[in-house]
Amino acid sequence: MMQNVVFQTVNGLIMGAIYALMALGLNLIWSITDVPEFSQGGIYVVAAYIGYFVVVSANLPWFLGLFAAMGAGAVLGFSFEKLLYRRMRGMTLNLLLSAIALFFLLVNVAVWLWTPKARFLPLYVGGEVVFFGLQFSRQRLLVLVLSLLLFILVNLFVWRTKPGKAIRAASQDREAAQLVGINIDTVSSLVFSLGGALSGTAAALISPLYAVYPAMGDLPLLKALVVVILGGLGSVQGVLIAGGLLGVVESLGATFISSAYQHGFSFFILILVLLLRPRGLFGRV
What we know:
11 helices, globular, 2 strands
């Protein structure tokens, strides 16, 4: 019994890390620009296909596919901010509708270009690792390790670099940040690029465990939204904790209650948080 709990907890942390990666970019974008960037779900899909073609069609090493997916996500995020969102700044409803429209547009472009048929990536690393009598796939552990490494790097970037300080200042008070000379356009482009890169990385990491197909971004986008609200808008650490918590709750709930309700647990938590603590566990007032 205890071994099963530990095993499912680790699996939950792995999925939670993927939710958190995508949620981190969404959180930064939303807290700074007031754009609920739902097109990250579409970026996730396109980046996954880019990574697939680099690894499978071009027969290049998996880490190049990972970098290609990351780069594709960054370019798409930057382009959307530069060409579309910046022109609608302050128009909240238009921004929301545009983000939703971009999400569906990217998904339909993926269907048009690559058909709805699922494609399968080989595992980046094969084999299993045994800890205390429990077997874990090396691929799943790679996902967890790389996700945590990216979180550490992003956290260091946000807290230790000059652009990171500008991001934090804009997140706390955009108007005050402008008054002290921070270029909001530059900060916006930076966080959109970062958000796209994180979504692309999440897609490339998880693809070998499941499949690459046009609808693959739907659930991760919804889960990322739950993580943002649960962790609190503007909180990097909150996103990591909330992502891990959500993944563990889903994994344990599916194992010990019913797998039929696995995705429902997330939205039950979302409703509770909105009722009891609308700003999230770590969000500012």
